[in-house]
Amino acid sequence: MGVRLHGVRRTFPDGTVALHGLDLAFETGEFIVLLGPSGSGKTTACRLLAGLDMPSAGRIEIDGIDVTAMPPRLRDMGMVFQNYALYAHKTVYENIAYPLRIRKMSAADIQARVHDIARLLQLEPYLGRKPAQLSGGQAQRVAVARALVWSPAICLMDEPLSNLDALLRVRARTELKRLHRDLGTTFVFVTHDQEEAMTLGTRIAVLRDGRLEQFDAPRDVYRRPATRFVAEFVGRPAMNTFDGDVRAGVFASMGLTVPVPGWPDGPVTLGIRPEQIECATRETPGAIAAVVDVSECVEPDTLLFAKCGDATIIVRAAGDDLSMAPGQHVHLRLPPAALHRFHRETGVRLP
Ligand code: ATP
Fold this sequence. Notes:
The chain is an alpha+beta fold. 24% of the residues lie in helices and 35% in strands. The strands form 4 sheets. Strands 6-7-8-3-9-10 form a 6-stranded mixed beta sheet, with helices on both faces.
């Protein structure tokens, strides 16, 4: 049981294809993150799940029932959007109670449920206030409370944290994680922020131009990116990628040469994460010589932009190891086990 999207396509009247036959399946209780750059189709997928829009082709099933044409009010889903759209003239209590009132719940049940969810989201002190008297973080929590108060099976959230400042965002993230753990509700969360996706999701669906690039646990998305796009989109600073050619176990690109034992000859894209590059010495077998171009402090680490021929390599090192002056010569080792191999034309990961 769970949610299944089968070949879901959305073409808008002007011919824009927002989703090209999306296949996605997830289970009850997961925290699914739809991640992708602007225009990749995240909101479209979320609206189709909610029933606010209809697919041009394909179907959506929830717990084995075809809901493709089912109106939103019949779907068991709560929703939180970027602009929380709280009722300005109602108190926080009434905002949260609203979904229960339209479901004609008894006054006693309404009171009990509103207080339960308000306690969970630490909103009890504000129940008598109007939305204008709340901070951004509090308003966001009210929107989440309103979406969850009637215990929907699924809660859809489209960039709900984007109006919050950086610190509040991190706090709200932790609250959402706790809430998910406590309620066991299935969460579908839309974001373009890869860090948010990595910290929240049980699984992340990475979208690009209306196509699914990868659907995996955060750790796998980071450690075994299915495509070059995912490799570069997830992780900051981005994975180093170089287009080049392999000849006799050596990869060459723009003056950069890297030993790649066992790799077949031919064109390929090589990738390595900045934190996996090791500082070495001239004597280290396979070490490459590079010259420091820029060194940046990203406490507690140091980022080094080093030139090797015409290629720039980004290295992330712990502590002060790499607080080096521009122009300094360094030796770097790219451990073979840390290298990723992508098809140079399609960007697909190679085994
Ligand atoms: P963002 O992060 O910017 O919200 P997104 O990943 O949520 O982006 P969508 O809003 O799903 O992307 O849009 C996907 C594509 O569909 C985009 O190219 C967008 O321009 C297009 N699109 C969305 N709505 C319409 C519409 N009503 N008519 C035509 N094209 C549309």
